[in-house]
Amino acid sequence: MKRSFYLDNIKTQSVNSMYTTTRFITSSYSEWLLRIKHKLDSEHDTAAIAELKAFFDPKKHQIHVHIVAKYKNFYTKAKDISSHTHDCSNFEKAILDIFCDRKHFDIANDKYVTRLLSEKQEAEQYDSFEVHMEILD
Description:
Order of helices and strands: EHHEHEE
Distance between the termini: 10 Å
Strand order of the largest sheet: 1-4-2-3
Shape: globular
Number of strands: 4
């Protein structure tokens, strides 16, 4: 079973900006989470999340995740990749937590994610990202 989620006009969040030095979540991360939850509150996305949760069986399934981050200002004037794009490994945890953590959508514990592919690309109009989740036997 495969489901995809498209989060337009939202930039990925870096794990570096998720927590304060005392491991409390930052206000920017809290605001980002609210924006994501609001975007995923559509009937289509709510149904897709419910389907993934109902289908997943930890005794026989594993999860593959593909994350695509798109940045409007991907390149600098010198045609180098901008430092405003996050390192792929920095946004993976923040996005996985939304879908896998009990405090959020709780599809399945992220220990069942056996394959994680992330990439960043140039966006045509605005920052956004996509999450493709597939449950496999």
